[in-house]
Amino acid sequence: MLENITSPTLLVDQSKVNRNVQRMADRALRHNLTLRPHFKTHQSGEVGEWVRSFGVNSITVTSLRMAREFAQCGWEDITIAMPLNPRELPGIGELAQQVYLSVFLVDPETAGKLSKEIAKQIGYFIELDAGYGRSGVKIENLNLIAAIIEAAGNHHCRGFYVHSGHTYEAGDKQEIDQIHEGLMRKIANLKSGLSRLAGTHPSGPVRTRLAQTFEFAIGDTPACSTQESFNHITSIGPGNFVYYDLVQAGLGACSTDDIAVCLAAPVVQVLPHKNQAIVHAGWVQLGKDRLPDGTHGRVVKLKEDGSWSASLADCVVLKLSQEHGTLQLTTEVLQELSPGDLLGILPVHACATVHGMRATGEQLIIAAPGD
Amino acid sequence: MLENITSPTLLVDQSKVNRNVQRMADRALRHNLTLRPHFKTHQSGEVGEWVRSFGVNSITVTSLRMAREFAQCGWEDITIAMPLNPRELPGIGELAQQVYLSVFLVDPETAGKLSKEIAKQIGYFIELDAGYGRSGVKIENLNLIAAIIEAAGNHHCRGFYVHSGHTYEAGDKQEIDQIHEGLMRKIANLKSGLSRLAGTHPSGPVRTRLAQTFEFAIGDTPACSTQESFNHITSIGPGNFVYYDLVQAGLGACSTDDIAVCLAAPVVQVLPHKNQAIVHAGWVQLGKDRLPDGTHGRVVKLKEDGSWSASLADCVVLKLSQEHGTLQLTTEVLQELSPGDLLGILPVHACATVHGMRATGEQLIIAAPGD
């Protein structure tokens, strides 16, 4: 297979993807959770089909554009995980004719526009901020939650969604545990608060809507991958877990061996006097993320069947420019290296690598070692 | 025009592009330099035509893929500015049947393969490293230069190319001046060395080739934009100058008003309690680069004709995730802001913004204010 690769090429190890999805599906089953995976990481119709084969039938995406792409792939329950952009209401109304579409609401003003401008019932989640500090309603703000539900009229409140993005900044698994446990307490409080409000809210229709059964969803891959206590959580929407990457391995969300994508990078210059090689692989192909040690990836050897070795000791991606990568290698690796050889690079952040490779129009090769 | 924008959209101000290209074309004319612009920044057939209208007829690209794209747009003199990847020799041979293709050589081994595997004469530049420390032959290494020329056989050595990428890390204009002046001295030495070698090299054909007139080319936008002394330099290959960005403005290579691209970002949440707003614009749309102050861009107001204001005081892009951006704004700007409004973002690094937007398949709108 390797001899067909002439330019930077993203290898996807199907058996690792299947293993990663299987593990997450098992975890969901074990805890009675709906798995509604986020498709922003792979953005691939084909990889989406592999995920579907594990019984998944509802998905999360980032944008209306991505929702349209996956609607075309036959997905019928799609949630756009970004506060609703009022400018997209016409497009959302149109797509809602074809699929069961859900959006995120974070304020009564936009909820009111949704109610007024889209007649066909769609679903929505109220996005909650439980400490990440990005988008969403503060999880303690019950009045604002009730105001959104009131303003959204007859659209269907499916529940609440929390993306604890700060688990990505955690130093280790223990810190992820702490963030997750804090969130579980906050969701328990929210649930009591909603029950109380269902009895006391002045508006009859709002009381009825508050009395229904809600979903409580979380989305961050680190918590979804590591936690075993989900309490009131009813669904999970991780994205990165299909491929994982070096950041997730660093957090303990996966092992390095679980990383299911690898960039095949052609060597274009060998610089023995400084133990370096230049490859055709820059931030265009890999993204600009860095590991805590400042490097941009780890180096592996590629095998003829498209699989790859464990990461080579002391071999790192030192620097990236637009399409050049500078690798720092050992004398051992360098002495058998020539221009035209291929090396593999494990990505720091798979989402960025996949997005960058989409823009180059380069080949994506599905490797299924052992098949 | 703004009412047609529903999702993140890259605005290109054609009048600013024309002004930037005119200025660079004037500089080239003034110093008797060939302008061979690098098309990696815009990667657009349409913008390429604007550049062509200034009399440009030879261009630089990063990859064989990009060379193919611009060959399809009718460009006939294309240089691939990356050490030749031996795996691409068949593709290079094929494209060389249609256009005058030039490549970069950095070692005799690959030069020998080129000579052996491609019969039709193509051009090449020897890439030199004059202190950047990335790819290329060390500028002092005359023996290696001669060995490459010998190994490349009858292919046409057009000359030498230096990308002083370290000007991007310069603190200010004075540091760029120092790097450039150092380079001018090194090129003068190289030129004397080549003359000497043309008289003494043991191989007759190599002596003949060394006696010809060579191009001496530089590529970094900071030096190309700011220097007025080019000595032995005969051609310049800047890329970023068509659009410029906040990094270039910080280096003094342009003014903020020269920046010719701006991302129109829909506001999806307003957070008055912390003077922030969330926009649909993340690292997918903007790239992950940061300014020295750690922020990811500056905020402007968009005008109805697609142009934009000067950057708003104390309004910055604080954080980016995949498609969410967190803006830190002033109370003044916030008080008139609602979800569904558009704000403009000036990019830190235009090459990354343009590349990211290519992958989303979002609209690119050519704004030509005043036309």
UniProtKB/TrEMBL annotation, chains A, B:
<protein>
    <recommendedName>
        <fullName>D-serine dehydratase-like domain-containing protein</fullName>
    </recommendedName>
</protein>
<feature type="domain" description="D-serine dehydratase-like">
    <location>
        <begin position="260"/>
        <end position="358"/>
    </location>
</feature>
<dbReference type="InterPro" id="IPR042208">
    <property type="entry name" value="D-ser_dehydrat-like_sf"/>
</dbReference>
<keyword id="KW-0456">Lyase</keyword>
<dbReference type="InterPro" id="IPR029066">
    <property type="entry name" value="PLP-binding_barrel"/>
</dbReference>
<comment type="similarity">
    <text>Belongs to the DSD1 family.</text>
</comment>
<dbReference type="GO" id="GO:0008721">
    <property type="term" value="F:D-serine ammonia-lyase activity"/>
</dbReference>
<dbReference type="Pfam" id="PF01168">
    <property type="entry name" value="Ala_racemase_N"/>
</dbReference>
<dbReference type="GO" id="GO:0036088">
    <property type="term" value="P:D-serine catabolic process"/>
</dbReference>
<dbReference type="Pfam" id="PF14031">
    <property type="entry name" value="D-ser_dehydrat"/>
</dbReference>
<dbReference type="InterPro" id="IPR026956">
    <property type="entry name" value="D-ser_dehydrat-like_dom"/>
</dbReference>
<dbReference type="InterPro" id="IPR051466">
    <property type="entry name" value="D-amino_acid_metab_enzyme"/>
</dbReference>
<dbReference type="InterPro" id="IPR001608">
    <property type="entry name" value="Ala_racemase_N"/>
</dbReference>
